[in-house]
Specification:
about 240 residues; Alpha/beta knot; 8-stranded parallel β-sheet; 7 helices; 2 domains; Ribosomal Protein L25, Chain P; 5-stranded mixed β-sheet; alpha/beta
């Protein structure tokens, strides 16, 4: 069902006027007509089933029929990640939004090649907001401002479980961590293309992070972020992963 966002509160039996982008999305992008049913979200996070009553040139009106159950909350998974080259992080933000990840923290490491500026951050936050239409989560993926790795790692000392993806000798297969059980929230760290330095790995160890691997393959950064987060979200959803 098409989702649109109202600027104010909604009430069953009331009429809501949609303007600007919401009207354009309803009329021009999704090409709806009067009588079609849509889902409306109000600014308090409520979900409602509604029927389009009117489509004008610059605005639409929808009649609120019933209140729906709350949208699913994001999974308590936080990602500390180096930023891949070019605009590959755009796709990562979309995938993490769809998975239900709670937040993404871009980190600057010793081998980082990208230090995202305000323009990239604004684009990622816009992508996260737009993704709510598709995936139906309660609120957008939170995109934090970039921080240096030490600040990010030390700030996660109280997290339920802390994982650092490091596919070399000494790393535990991530399914073994699953068998041992997971406490929330889950924090996962993914390094740049060159990996974390020895000093950075020692920093993780000193702050309670467990080294894990996804198997013997070496993934690109943008692949690794999505893969490890899919597993972490599954843990939080109490899905048993078999070896």
């Amino acid at each position: 069902m098409t989702r649109v966002f109202a600027e104010g509160p909604c009430e069953v039996g009331g009429t809501v006027v949609l303007r600007r982008e919401e009207h354009r999305y309803l009329a021009s992008v999704r090409r709806h007509r009067p009588g079609d049913e849509v889902e409306v979200r109000d600014d308090a996070g409520g979900r409602f089933r509604a029927v389009i009553a009117r489509l004008g040139r610059g605005e639409s009106a929808v009649e609120i029929i019933e209140r729906l159950d709350p949208a699913p909350a994001g999974a308590p998974v936080r990602v500390l990640s180096a930023v891949p080259k070019r605009n590959l992080m755009d796709g990562v933000v979309r995938r993490l939004s769809e998975l239900g990840v709670m937040s993404l923290v871009p980190v600057i490491t010793g081998r980082s090649v990208v230090d995202p500026g305000e323009g990239k951050l604004e684009r990622w936050r816009r992508i996260a907001e737009e993704s709510v239409r598709q995936c139906g989560r309660r609120s957008p993926l939170e995109i934090a401002d970039p921080v240096d790795l030490e600040t990010a790692v030390v700030g996660e000392r109280e997290a339920g479980i802390r994982l650092v993806l490091h596919p070399e000798e000494g790393a535990l297969p991530i399914r073994e961590v699953a068998k041992a059980g997971m406490a929330e929230p889950v924090v996962v760290a993914i390094g740049p293309e060159g990996g974390f330095t020895g000093a950075e790995l020692s920093l993780f160890e000193a702050n309670g992070f467990t080294r894990v691997s996804m198997g013997g393959v070496i993934m690109r950064v943008e692949t690794a972020i999505v893969a490890v987060c899919a597993v972490a979200v599954a843990f939080c959803g109490e899905i048993l992963l078999q070896p």
